[in-house]
Amino acid sequence: MKNFTIALFAALMLTSVSLRAENWMSRLPDNTYVSVLSIPGAHDAATGSGWEEGMESLGDAFARTQGLTLDSLWSIGIRAFDLRPCVYEEYMNINHGIVPTNVHFEDALRQLRDSLVANPSEFIIIHLLHESDGDQVENAYNERLLEVLNADDLKDYFVSFKRDLKVSEMRGKILLLSRDVYANTPIGGFFRNWTGEANWGKQTQGRIIGPNNAIASLYMQDYSDTHGENGIETKIAAIERLLNFSTTYETKKATSCRWIFNFASAYSKMESVFGYEVSTSEGYRDNATHTHAAILNYLQEHEAGPTGIILMDFAGVEESEGYETRGKELVNALIDNNFRYLDDLAGVDAPMTTEKATAETVFSIDGRQLTSLQQGHVNIVKMDDGRVLKTFIK
């Protein structure tokens, strides 16, 4: 018991590097709604893993948005992955536009699954988008995707979307949310009414649809082209407007859950290729220097609250090709942000007093072991059935 107490105390005090990264979700109370978390994510996550043979120069110049492999992104604490598969003859590949990475979609899913098996306290959210420009087989995406998702060694790892998903229901699982409707019923959920405009009215009209008539409100910000006049200023204003909402919105019950996707990613530079204007890797780096700094400043200057899912470029990378991307600092800040508002009951479904499990160990929010529950304070409770709960005693 003494060793257990020391280990849990260290976790609550955020002093363990491994808990800050590979196991950071182990500190989240089981009864917290997923919609009120702050989750760092990677936009076009597979582009840091390399390119299909012969495509290295093209990929490095025009399609790179990450500097770390999928394994490394997991290790630094990324828990949301933007994956964009297309259809090849023998497999599905992950592309960024027409540029193929060297990562097969099936392999990426199994790699992420293995990370969950090794770290069962964690969970993953996948933002899925059909990269149709890369298809080598036409009109086969829906069928091939379902084949992959229903594979015997993968199908049990996907969780069905519902508005009030809790951390306890997500541990060890993958929530796959697709921008494309590939079947009558999703494996995970479908995004609806997605927009890339910096228009608040449209950004707040999104929905996530799940099996069994599940539906939730989705607020999104995915303004991606910042290369024009005032483009970066427009992007930052849109990011901050959604942060203003997400960090102050009170989720008091299951029916009030709002899901947030706030993209830091965008491209601020383009080049003309064969008469077409295309985004560049340098543009993703340059944009990241501005949006990452803006989010970090926001987190430092405002009262802590949920950010939702933040998908960024060059996650975990502090400097890339001369650009100060601050990607490692941003990932760490988002992880730590969760525990800055742990003492706020918004977004927590209070445990029922009729539960049969009993409290095994009690800690204050700052990590001190207590002999009993404190009245008028938030308590972190380790139950004898293994759950970790956040409770408030009036």
Q: What topology does this entry show?
A:
Blueprint: H1 2-12, H2 17-20, E1 38-42, H3 56-62, H4 70-76, E2 80-83, E3 85-87, E4 92-96, E5 99-104, H5 105-118, E6 124-128, H6 141-149, H7 167-170, E7 174-178, E8 189-192, H8 200-203, E9 206-209, E10 215-221, H9 231-246, E11 258-263, E12 270-273, E13 276-279, H10 281-301, E14 308-312, H11 327-338, E15 359-364, E16 369-370, E17 378-383, E18 388-392
Parallel strand pairs: 1-2, 1-14, 2-6, 6-7, 7-8, 10-11, 11-14
Antiparallel strand pairs: 3-4, 4-5, 8-9, 9-10, 12-13, 15-16, 15-17, 17-18
Helix pairs in contact: 9-10, 10-11
What does this structure look like?
The structure is a single chain. By secondary structure, the protein is of the alpha/beta class. The protein contains 11 helices and 18 strands. The protein has helices spanning 2-12, 17-20, 56-62, 70-76, 105-118, 141-149, 167-170, 200-203, 231-246, 281-301, 327-338; strands at residues 38-42, 80-83, 85-87, 92-96, 99-104, 124-128, 174-178, 189-192, 206-209, 215-221, 258-263, 270-273, 276-279, 308-312, 359-364, 369-370, 378-383, 388-392. The strands form 4 sheets. It has a 9-stranded mixed beta barrel with strand order 1-2-6-7-8-9-10-11-14. Strands 16-15-17-18 form a 4-stranded antiparallel β-sheet, with no helix packed on it. Strands 3-4-5 form a 3-stranded antiparallel β-sheet. A hairpin with a 4-residue loop joins strand 3 (85-87) and strand 4 (92-96). Helix 9 packs parallel to helix 10 (281-301). The longest helix has 21 residues, at 281-301. The radius of gyration is 21 Å and the shape is globular. The relative contact order is 0.15.
